[in-house]
Amino acid sequence: MLKQSDIKKIAWLARLEIAEEDTPGFSRDLSNILNLVEQMDHVDTSSVTPMAHPLELSARLRPDKVTETNQREQLQSHAPAVERGHYLVPKVIE
After folding, report:
1. In terms of DSSP bridges, do strands 82-83 and 86-87 run parallel, antiparallel, or are they unpaired?
2. Which distant-in-sequence residues (6+ apart) come within 8 Å of 87 by Cβ?
3. CB burial string 59-83: b at 16+ within 10 A, e below
4. 23, β-bridge pairs
5. Smallest Cα–Cα separation from 11: which of 1, 26, 29, 25?
6. How far from chain centre, in Å, is Cα 25?
7. What is the end-to-end Cα distance of the chain in Å, rounded?
């Protein structure tokens, strides 16, 4: 079971404010979650094929072709500063 000091540290790291009276409930709930994860670690998954999505879906592919005209000049005409086709922005990192 997580100690009260563990809960306070986790809350501080997550930038959460937890009322003192709520700490025991969070300790119990988080301990239960961690115990469940530990149980799941012991399950043999060696025969399970990894998958990217739980459903057997195939992506519909479309041809990779240009469908719109180049509007860069028109779009950049509204920008305050442009140079050689690039937007110029103020430096924010020294």
Report:
1. antiparallel
2. 76, 79, 81
3. eeeeeeeeeeeeeeeeeeeeeeeee
4. none
5. 26
6. 27
7. 46
The per-residue pLDDT for range 14-40, each reduced to its tens digit, is 999 999 999 999 999 999 999 999 999
CA distances from 47 to 3, 21, 33, 37, 40 (A): 37, 45, 25, 20, 15
pTM exceeds 0.85 for this model: no
Q: Which residue has the tokens 């399970």?
A: 48
Q: What would the two tokens of residue 56 be? A: 């057997």
Number of H helices, E strands in the chain: 3, 2
Q: What is the pLDDT of residues 33-76, one digit of tens each?
A: 999 999 999 999 999 988 888 888 887 888 999 999 999 999 99
Res. 94: pLDDT tops 80: no
Name residue, tokens 């709520």: 22
Residue 1 · residue 31 · CB < 8 Å = yes
